[in-house]
């Protein structure tokens, strides 16, 4: 095999060859299409970039493991020797008993003691890139399409939540085992109708995950939820725009309160008047003393 300058990458002083893996082209697959009464309506061509890939087993394993780990509560806990009640006093003397020396009866090596290296509450969540999450989902969908376990329904014809109608539809569709039905965001009546059937699980298009696809024997789409391109799966849930809050009416400005003429005068002017009086009284006293001093000087 000959290599060219375009096939090599120089890293420092070492020249190494880049390994390029040729991926096969997506394959076009078909799925049966039926109505809610179970009548065949022909077949539908599935999108090759979604249902025609070669499953990546390594990515599937990593993503599904991360999803199962994120579902763990992580609330398990054990008590260490410092958290177990008791054990403050030395259980027996240091020497003369023939036993190993002990400083506390709550040592992990004793009955009723603490647990050494036991589990503590923690998070088991793993960070997974969005591209890996999307590749794992597309690999799972391609695997189900490859073995012929995908079914498309034109319309559910369910107008009110009723388990009897949902059970009749499942029986007429002639699917057995674990069934995963992908419903639209606004199909609440369909979701509630299938909720009481133990072998049927429902999910929305935005919440579809690789783990849900792999654990189901049959994957049932409707004409509304059948993916048309790989860009429909961004690795995150579908964001629904929240309704805008109604604009609040502006409150009319309140008129300023009119002061009552009968109200008493403010305290500050009164204090000023009293202070002025207090200053004026010594001045009057000094003025009254001045004639007496003049009279004494004349005498």
Description of the structure:
This protein is of the alpha/beta class and 299 residues long. It has a domain at 24-68 and 127-232: Ribosomal Protein L4, Chain: A, CATH 3.40.1370.10. The chain is built from 7 helices and 8 strands. A 6-stranded mixed sheet has the order 4-3-5-8-6-7, with no helix packed on it. Strands 1-2 form a two-stranded antiparallel sheet.
Mind telling me the C-alpha Rg?
42 Å
What is the H-and-E element order? Answer: EEEEHHHEHEHEHEH
CATH homologous superfamily identity of the domain at 24-68 and 127-232: Ribosomal protein L4/L1
Number of strands: 8
How would you write the strand order of the largest sheet?
A: 4-3-5-8-6-7
Q: Please, how many helices?
A: 7
Low-confidence stretches: 235-242, 275-280
Q: Return the CATH architecture of the domain at 24-68 and 127-232.
A: 3-Layer(aba) Sandwich
- Class of the domain at 24-68 and 127-232 in CATH? Alpha Beta
CATH topology of the domain at 24-68 and 127-232: Ribosomal Protein L4, Chain: A
Determine the strand fraction and express it as a percent band. 5-15%
The overall pLDDT average reads: 81
Largest sheet properties: 6 strands, mixed
Distance between the termini: 142 Å
Key attributes of the depicted protein:
299 residues; alpha/beta; Ribosomal Protein L4, Chain: A; 6-stranded mixed beta sheet; two-stranded antiparallel sheet; 7 helices
């Amino acid at each position: 095999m000959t290599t060219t300058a375009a096939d090599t990458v120089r890293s420092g002083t070492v020249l190494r060859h880049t390994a390029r893996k040729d991926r096969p082209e997506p394959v076009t697959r078909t799925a049966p299409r039926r109505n809610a009464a179970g009548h065949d309506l022909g077949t539908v061509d599935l999108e090759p970039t979604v249902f025609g890939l070669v499953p990546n087993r390594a990515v599937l394993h990593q993503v599904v493991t991360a999803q199962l780990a994120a579902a763990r509560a992580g609330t398990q806990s054990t008590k260490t020797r410092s958290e177990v009640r008791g054990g403050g006093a030395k259980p027996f003397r240091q020497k003369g008993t023939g036993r190993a020396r002990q400083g506390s009866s709550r040592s992990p090596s004793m009955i009723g003691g603490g647990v050494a290296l036991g589990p503590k509450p923690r998070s088991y969540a793993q960070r997974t890139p969005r591209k890996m999450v999307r590749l794992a989902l597309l690999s799972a969908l391609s695997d189900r399409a490859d073995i012929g376990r995908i079914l498309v329904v034109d319309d559910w014809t369910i107008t009110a939540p009723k388990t009897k109608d949902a059970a009749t539809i499942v029986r007429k569709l002639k699917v057995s085992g674990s069934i995963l039905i992908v419903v639209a965001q606004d199909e609440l009546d369909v979701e509630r109708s299938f909720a009481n059937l133990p072998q049927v699980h429902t999910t929305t298009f935005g919440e579809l995950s690789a783990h849900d696809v792999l654990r189901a024997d049959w994957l049932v789409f409707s004409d509304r939820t059948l993916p048309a391109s790989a860009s429909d799966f961004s690795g995150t849930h579908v964001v629904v725009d929240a309704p805008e809050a109604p604009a609040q009416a502006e409150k009319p400005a309140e008129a300023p309160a009119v002061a009552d003429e009968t109200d008493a005068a403010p305290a500050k002017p009164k204090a000023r008047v009293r202070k002025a009086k207090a200053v004026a009284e010594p001045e009057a006293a000094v003025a009254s003393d001045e004639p007496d001093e003049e009279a004494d000087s004349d005498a």
